[in-house]
């Protein structure tokens, strides 16, 4: 449950990353310290920065740079990979086509998902079946993003082992039938800057993405280094800025982890408000459960919350489909 936090903590996860494959990782003093910090951050804010994550800063920057190059292209070029239901909701959407709670968002984006082959999940997966649409221009876009996704997937798995320990379980609570075949989502996003006094008079013109929570387990946000736009809401309703810190990811937990934790951890509301005149890019990676995972509170979390289930059972794929089928103007 979120508190009246005023800032977002920074956690050096390098001890966790180093020991993550060690069966005795929970006994390591460095890991124990990281686990305590993760527990505190997930309880109090649902958001935290991570440093010491091991993903090269050069790759983090290359991903943002190639994203900027794509959004600089003419609309006619970008629309070649247009998102539609027929593409499994993969591809490009222009400014205003993404909807949050009924209101168009002032951003453009490419949406990518772990690919689902025909029939893989039966009726549950039908909506999301398809292959990702990668632009041919700029060159090397697909290869760079796929390398990035692989590294983010590995890092997220390691952080989730720390969160599993923080909840009082084994490091492997979120593997196997829960997230052993973790689904993932990649949103490659561009937020136009304010164009002048006209925009300033209409605050809705700079709501890049309206207030929302994320769907899955864990999000890694790679944001531009020189524009503060991400905001997180505390318990009193104040919007707390999450300014970029070079070399870090902003991490937050999602709806499925809130359910698993039986409400011990919060999937906190957040939004994007780009008040800068500069165009802002952001690449958000979402680490999810298995697509067909049936999500319900962990026994260890029910024990910590008086044996009462705060949430019913949810199937991640159903949750995702319910969101994507209402999130876009076609």
Secondary-structure blueprint:
Elements: E1 10-12, H1 14-19, H2 29-44, E2 47-51, H3 57-71, H4 75-78, E3 91-93, E4 99-100, E5 103-104, E6 108-113, H5 141-166, E7 184-191, H6 197-200, E8 207-212, E9 218-223, E10 230-233, E11 239-241, E12 249-253, H7 255-260, E13 270-273, E14 280-287, E15 294-295, H8 299-304, E16 314-315, H9 316-324
Parallel strand pairs: 1-2
Antiparallel strand pairs: 2-12, 3-6, 4-5, 6-7, 7-14, 8-13, 9-12, 9-14, 10-11, 10-13, 15-16
Helix pairs in contact: 2-5, 3-5
Low-confidence spans: 196-201
Number of strands: 16
CATH superfamily: B-lactam Antibiotic, Isopenicillin N Synthase, Chain
The helix count comes to: 9
| Average of pLDDT | 93
Sheet with most strands: 8 strands, mixed
**What order do the strands of the largest sheet run in, or round the barrel if closed?**
1-2-12-9-14-7-6-3
End-to-end distance, in Å?
36 Å
Level-2 CATH architecture: Sandwich
Catalytic activity: L-homoarginine + 2-oxoglutarate + O2 = 6-hydroxy-L-homoarginine + succinate + CO2
Subcellular location: Cytoplasm, Cytosol
Domain Fe2OG dioxygenase: 181-289
Protein name: Fe2OG dioxygenase domain-containing protein
């Amino acid at each position: 449950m979120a508190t009246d936090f005023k800032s977002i903590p920074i956690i050096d996860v390098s001890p966790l990353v180093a020991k993550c494959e060690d069966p005795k990782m929970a006994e390591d003093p460095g890991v124990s310290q990281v686990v305590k910090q993760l527990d505190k951050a997930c309880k109090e804010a649902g958001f935290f920065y991570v440093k010491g994550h091991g993903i090269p800063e050069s790759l983090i920057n290359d991903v943002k740079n190639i994203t900027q190059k794509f959004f600089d292209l003419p609309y006619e070029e970008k629309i070649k990979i247009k998102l539609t239901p027929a593409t499994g909701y993969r591809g490009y959407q222009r400014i205003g086509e993404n909807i949050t709670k009924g209101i168009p968002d002032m951003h453009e984006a490419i949406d990518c998902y772990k690919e689902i082959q025909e029939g893989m999940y039966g009726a549950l997966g039908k909506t999301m079946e398809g292959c990702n649409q990668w632009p041919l221009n700029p060159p090397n876009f697909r290869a760079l993003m796929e390398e990035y996704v692989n590294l983010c997937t590995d890092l997220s798995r390691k952080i989730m082992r720390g969160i599993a320990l923080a909840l009082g379980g084994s490091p492997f609570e979120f593997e196997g039938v829960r997230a052993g075949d973790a689904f993932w989502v990649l949103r490659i996003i561009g937020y136009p800057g304010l164009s002048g006094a006209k925009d300033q008079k209409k605050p809705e013109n700079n709501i890049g993405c309206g207030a929302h929570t994320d769907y899955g387990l864990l999000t890694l946000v790679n944001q531009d280094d020189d524009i503060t736009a991400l905001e997180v809401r505390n318990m009193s309703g104040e919007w707390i800025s999450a300014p970029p810190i070079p070399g870090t990811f902003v991490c937050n937990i999602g709806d499925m982890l809130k359910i698993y934790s039986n409400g011990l951890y919060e999937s906190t509301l957040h939004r994007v408000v780009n008040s800068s005149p500069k165009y802002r890019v952001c690449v958000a990676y979402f680490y999810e459960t298995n697509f067909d995972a049936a999500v319900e509170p962990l026994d260890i979390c029910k024990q910590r919350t008086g044996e009462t289930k705060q949430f019913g059972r949810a199937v991640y794929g159903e949750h995702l489909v319910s969101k994507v089928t209402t999130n876009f103007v076609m």
